[in-house]
Amino acid sequence: MPRTTxxxxxxxxxxxxxxxxxxxxxGHEPENRPPEDYIRYGVINLDKPAGPTSHEVAAWTKKxxxxxxxxxxxxxxx
Amino acid sequence: xxKKNPKNRLHRSRRNSRGLxxxxxxxxxxxxxxxxxxLEDSTKIVQALLYSxxxxxxVMKLHGNAVEERVKAVLSxxxxxxxxxxxxxxxxxxxxxxxxxxxxxxxxxxxxxVLFKVGCEGGTYIRKLCYDIGEILxxxxxxxxxxxxxAGPFTENDSRKVTLHDVAYWFGEWQEKKDQQxxxxxxxPMENALKLLPRxxxxxxxxxxxxxxxxxxxxxxxxxxxGITNGSITTIFxxxxxxxxxxxxxxxxxxxxxxxxxxxxxxxRVVMPRGTYPKxxxxxxxx
Lengths: 78, 287
Description:
The structure holds two protein chains of two kinds.
Chain A: E1 14-16, H1 35-40, E2 42-48, H2 54-65, E3 70-72
Chain B: H1 6-20, E1 31-39, H2 46-50, E2 54-62, H3 68-77, E3 81-84, E4 97-110, E5 113-120, H4 126-137, E6 141-151, E7 154-155, E8 161-162, H5 164-177, H6 180-186, E9 188-189, E10 199-202, H7 204-211, E11 216-217, E12 221-225, E13 233-237, E14 243-249, H8 253-258, E15 263-270
Parallel strand pairs in B: 1-6, 10-13
Antiparallel strand pairs in B: 2-5, 2-6, 3-4, 4-5, 6-7, 10-12, 11-15, 13-14, 14-15
């Protein structure tokens, strides 16, 4: 079977339908969120160590950061 | 023992999990790599990461001798849609399902150890894949070591890839100095997790309606990514680049660009809290 293009190699182009401006009074650019929001809407690209399960690693991160809710993207084994 | 020190915490927990269920330690500990962690509200988009493609580097151990050419041939046979039943010890329902293997790149072979890289759909069990490859080869095989090198948009080359120890260290620094630059060293905005999905960018005036659960209609749309088809999972962004919601497109890119009125996408998950942007619609009889 030939190699299929994985989703991360798919190229997309943004096509404009209408123009408008955004009001700087509301919302924040993702990189400039105030710190509390930055954590709340944050993701960590974690390098999982060998040994503990993904769930354990997620639980520890939660403990370290002292936050209430955490999730992980795709269990890495068991 | 200093309980505050995260290093000690690691060791304690590991001992507990080993001691508690000895059987569970059968699980191969040599599994490492990219594990994106979503914090608090960003957990709402974890679904998008679960289904995203993954890439692994794997060491497979054969149970008998095999010729290199034959191994290569069998590996390329698996670059296809494959059937898998989740293993006994897994966290999902054990029913037969299909998963796409995008590619398998063979690297090298040292006696009975085979090293290769595999790109696959989310939810593919590599342990199972190795077992199946062994069956086709006729000698049997198992997964010896595994490292995930990609989970959706997150890769090993990311400058913000961190270890658990980094997280503990930087968070301590942040609490001490309250310098935002420190937070940005190890946490990134959730929008980065959505990079591989097609985008729809909308007007400020449409944002709060969506936050209240309304479907996305044509007048609110400013721009659309190419390649959207009916049923595509898309991400809906503001002009500032904040994620508003995950939606399911009802039309293709071309159709959306032509449409004057009517529903463009239904919502799957709203991420932005209500009231972030002003409410601009009139609510009928209630004035």
